[in-house]
Design goal:
The complex is a heterodimer of chains A (310) and B (320). Helices cover 34% and strands 28% of the residues of chain A. Chain A is an alpha+beta fold. Chain A has a 5-stranded antiparallel beta sheet with strand order 8-7-6-5-9. Chain A has a 4-stranded antiparallel beta sheet with strand order 11-12-10-13, with helices on one face. Chain A is elongated, with a radius of gyration of 28 Å. Helices cover 35% and strands 24% of the residues of chain B. The N and C termini of chain B lie far apart (61 Å). The chains are: A alpha+beta (310), B alpha+beta (320). At the A-B interface, helix 1, helix 2, helix 4, helix 5 and strand 4 of A face helix 1, helix 3, helix 5, helix 6 and strand 5 of B. Strand 4 (131-134) of chain A pairs parallel with strand 7 of chain B.
Chain lengths: 310, 320
Amino acid sequence: MSPRAVATERLRKVLALVPWILAHPGAHLDDLAARFSMSRRDLERELSLLQFCGLPPYTADRLIDVDLRGDRVSIRLAEYFERPLRLTASEGFALLAAGRAMLTVPGADPHGPLARALDKLADALGSPQGLVVDVGGAPNLDVLRDAAREHGQVEIDYYSYARDEMTTRRIDPLRVFHAFGAWYTAAYCHRARGERLFRVDRVRAVRATGERFAPRPEADRHDELVYHPHPDDLRITLRLAPSARWVPETYPTEEVLDEPGGWCTVTMAISERAWLERLLLRLGPAAEVVAPAEEADAAAVAARRLLARY
Amino acid sequence: MADRLERLLNLTATLLDTRRPLTLDEVADRVEPRYPDDRASRHRAFERDKETLRELGIEISVESVDPLGGAGDVGYRIRPERYYLPELDLSDEEREALHVAVTAVRLEGDDAREALIKLGGLTGESAPAVADLPASPVLGDLFDATAQRAVVTFVYRGEDRELEPYGVVLRLGHWYVVGHDRARDAPRAFRVDRIEGGVSTGGAGSFSPPDAFDPEQYLRDDPLLFGEDRPVRALVLIDPARAGWVVEELGEEAVEERRDDGAVVVGLDVVNREAFRSWLFGLLDHATVLEPPAVRDDVVGWLRAVAGNEGDASHAGAPA
């Protein structure tokens, strides 16, 4: 961090710390260090600096009075810092959004301490109705959350969207969480013999096996929610009309070449055939497969197959 | 370093405590540690301090100190009403609940944590991650504009838009800003991640949102099915392999017929042909449109075009 950024961060902490100590005379240094996420050494450094701060002409009656006794501290003569600095627009938004999201997670208490805190916060920010967060639910969400909490093994019928196939597998659900607009469970899959992520809305049925599994730390698999192409995955190059601009905005691409007039050529990795067919059918004349040559008629083949149904 | 922090603290205290704006000379005469004597470097040092305070969200207001209100000397102060956090009166329990939420819900950046530190710090338990929310640098400004009742302008799909923002809504993994589109004189929802560049905010108090406004109303329907076409009821046959899924997705009320082999016929109100095709093709070989002829013909025509010209993009009439 640059010296300037360090000064900014230290000032930010001090401007939060002083009002708290003013309101809580005799605050314990360990509590303060934890509460404001500082080391005890840094905290003591800021407290000794504060004794030299105040208002002009910096005489004893104008300097901040820091009274440190053992592990406890009180502050006087800093009335101008008696309330914290207001939240920035981004801070207010982020705190309210996190809280509102938490409140829509199934099982949250709609009248508990969190709900009360958020009402106060939204009023103070001046927009009681201006932020709505809906993380949604899924039919088997509750039963999977219960299984994860109680370490209960379950058997699930699971639909793999990319492969367009249904499977039945035994899993140990380690954790259930929401990301990218959907609920997932990170689980040990006995069929795959490894940890896998499952989208809860594609879990068709859940049956308890009656077995318990030993709790174990779960690797942070958030990263896997974004598709990471395998070197062996098919690479496909599409030329896209301006109306298909949403494709590179929505899916991971390896290369995007913009052309005049809003056209572009994109190269993407494709792990499953069904996924490619859906995309090409949806895009219709707005997409053309440029490479590889053997996939040039992928859309036509899928379209003829579907046409046979009519 | 310590000198700089000391001066920033003293500058904040002085400008917050003063009842009248102070000129730069007055600031330099009072605040310690001293600003440089040389005028140019003094000005530079003061500007740098001002910028640092601005980064923290402290606004220094620049006001005329000319008694006749002319454009003479300017003075500086921090207006208390723009500095202090309104009293929130949070209990320990409420603060701890916010802390749990901030640790359980991940949002890019440190803003939620910083906010919590201002509200009295991080206390109590933290929680394992429960949800990830998408982030965008303009969300704070859009939300603030709903609070200020300020009109926002931005570029969306290459067009300038002017919106009276009523609310910011997270739905199906995307943030939307909803409100009244001034040019179209109609309610509109915009996906925040598709806003091109930044958002400019106009003056505060320039519109009144409707009473009892429910931002979700604007997005009540599946955004995929948002559209301007006239609604048409379409019947779609879903084969037994996917019947259960589709009924779960659309709800039991969408079921028009259950067949002996396990297949179902579902009814959908189609208001956007493109979104409908996308939904239908998502089911690949498991779905067939039965009625009405107009929708069926649209799908068949589309498939024929794709089957026939092998996706030659040069024929592209952009899909409606």
